[in-house]
Amino acid sequence: QVQLVESGGGLVQAGGSLRLSCTASGSIRSINGMGWYRQAPGKRRELVATITINGITNYADSVKGRFAISRDNAEKTVYLQMNSLIPEDTGVYYCNANIMPVSSYIWRDYWGQGTQVTVSS
Questions:
Q1: d(CA 39, CA 41)
Q2: 12 CB neighbour count, 10 Å cutoff
Q3: 88-100: per-residue pLDDT in tens?
């Protein structure tokens, strides 16, 4: 069974920094793209950043220049370094990964359970 487990959320003052981590575990054949999404109260889940297996990144306009996504393929881990945080960054952050499990040759998306990030003004 494949799982994504996030860590690193918390409460931080505006202007501060946090680093999120997400590690994939279980019977994994291969991992393709990985990314981070977030959902603020009363809003839809939105893309924050993605990274391909080759390290090509993509960011939401709202976080460009402040957030940096990276990954360690050997450790099956994706990171999100968040700097210059603002209250609008508050929400539940979800890890996403496109994974082929050992049990099949079909790619599918997996999600973590989410980690809360709260930025106080």
A1: 7
A2: 17
A3: 999 999 999 999 9
